[in-house]
Amino acid sequence: MSGLGTPRGPEFRSPDWSAAPDPAAAVAAPAARGRRLPAAALAALAVVGLSAGTGGVAGYVAGRDEPVATAAPSQGGVPSDLVGAAARVLPGVVSVQVRTGQGGASGSGFVFDDRGHIVTNNHVVAAGGVRGGAVTVVGSDGRRLTAEVVGTDPSNDIAVLRVDDGSALDRLALADPNGTRVGEPVLAVGSPLGLSGTVTAGIVSALDRPVRLGGSSRQTAVQTDASINPGNSGGPLVNARGEVIGVNTAIATLEGGGSIGIGFAVPIERARQVADSLIARG
Question: What domains, with CATH codes, occur in the chain?
């Protein structure tokens, strides 16, 4: 029996890359501080980054004083408004691919404005050691575009990319930051395990959940039970209106496992402020 684990991130590469993952990157020692999980819980519940590549492990730890809540069971059937939301959102979501001499990293992103800016996670581009260089984004129609890294903010795990042909992608609407409610239905959209255009449904499980991004100071996050996995990093968490309420950044996982229905997203208002600042600085 142990508390929340220390930072660790699953190594992941898109299926068409030949480099093999490093199994050592998935090993972490459990943390003994703070409240302990009930005796029935399995060992080493960790909060980990959703995407990692050669040269970097992306991991995040939840606040030590926060109990872990069990995700609400999913309801039978998918609301029709989520079907419409998925149709509106998918054209504005991209797969982000970073290639290096040692392999590469993969994640997701979404179109932030009409000038070709794309928001993703810092750990997606940092895993490849890229700053000011070029990466590739792939749209929902399969179109591949070269992108440059405009700027990164490791403390908030946000990065901004830019493509020259911004008209080729659809900008997503951003939600009212004060309108998100616990229990409302949401979609996590992205490229988990390299499977682009993947949509999973869930609810907002909690708001203002303290998490530690990049090993730095605590930040608050949106918690969701929508299934998110390695490769979802940087993709949008959207409400039933197709508006972005957060940027998917981390999951809680039992040691050695994948998504267990507890994921975390950077709230859209903080992501917007960081993105605007990075764009202004160029």
Answer: 23-66+173-274 (2.40.10.10), 90-172 (2.40.10.10)
